[in-house]
Specification:
Layout lengths: L1 E6 L5 H10 L5 E5 L11 H17 L2 E6 L2 H14 L4 E2 L5 H8 L5 E6 L1 H5 L1 H10 L5 E5 L1 H8 L5 H12 L7 E6 L8 H7 L5 E3 L2 H14 L10 E5 L2 E2 L3 H18 L2
Length: 261
């Protein structure tokens, strides 16, 4: 059986990239809801419908688990998904917990970046209320980064001015960690690094999600021997066009360059 990955678009590739390091011998389905991306600006009920349509399709392909490789989709629907399906549903959330733990004794603040919908959701606010006793967490929506990545726009001359303008609202010297709370944002780690002071940590939830997936599969005895094959679907349509497949290759190549792999 395969492992299913779902995202509103191509952001979840950043999670799959790290998962392949942890589970290189599994086979995967990657479902990008390209017809409806981005989710961040859309009403919650509309997004929930898209999520359930996608996950239902993935499960019908015969998978041992589904990774909701999208912070927005996790915040909107993870509990309902787990109540609906019997197989493991792995979600992800902005890495607020490790960020707060790192910074609480350093007299530094934490900046959580994500989509507007993720930042509005009760799930995130409950998490922050539980962890942030020192009131060191600030929130910053960066919706244009989703659009840039979906267009494969990684030109610094285009992206850096936007990112610089948004981050200029904060004195970054007073921050110890920037949380990349949307999977799309991990494509721009190198640009965050150029703008942030050298002491600022950049963290996302990708490797933690991959590790959680592996642990869950081991606990349920669901590990399978495959060859790392990935089958791509765009909104339920299998990707066979060479140009479309090449688009995914470009994303893996960019992540390899950013991560120095």
């Amino acid at each position: 059986m395969k492992i299913g990955f779902f995202d509103s678009g191509i952001g979840g590739i950043t999670v799959l990239y790290d998962t392949l390091k942890v589970l290189p011998n599994e086979d995967y389905i990657y479902y990008a809801d390209t017809e409806n991306v981005p989710y961040g600006p859309k009403p919650k009920d509309e997004v929930r419908k898209y999520i359930f349509n996608a996950v239902d399709f993935i499960i019908k392909q015969g998978v041992s688990a589904v990774v909701i490789a999208c912070n927005t989709a996790t915040s909107v629907a993870i509990e309902d998904l787990r109540n609906t399906y019997s197989i493991p549903i792995i979600g992800m959330e902005p890495a607020v917990k490790p960020a707060v733990e790192i910074n609480k004794d350093m007299d530094k603040r934490v900046l959580v970046t994500a989509t507007a919908l993720t930042l509005k959701e009760e799930k995130l606010h409950n998490l922050i209320a539980k962890l942030d006793n020192e009131n060191i967490v600030d929130l910053l929506p960066l919706p244009d980064l989703v659009q840039f990545s979906e267009k494969l726009e990684f030109d610094e001359e285009v992206v850096l001015p936007y990112l610089k303008e948004q981050l200029s609202k904060y004195d970054l010297n007073s921050y110890g960690t920037i949380v990349l709370g949307c999977t799309h944002f991990s494509y721009f780690k190198d640009m965050f690094r150029k703008l942030a002071p050298s002491h600022v940590n950049l963290i996302d939830g990708n490797i933690g999600t991959a590790t959680n997936l592996k642990r869950t599969l081991m606990e349920t005895d669901s590990l399978n021997k495959g060859n790392g094959k990935i089958t791509f679907y765009n909104s339920g349509v299998k990707v066979t066009d060479i140009n479309a497949l090449h688009r995914y290759d470009k994303l893996f190549n960019r992540l390899s360059i950013i991560n120095g792999d």
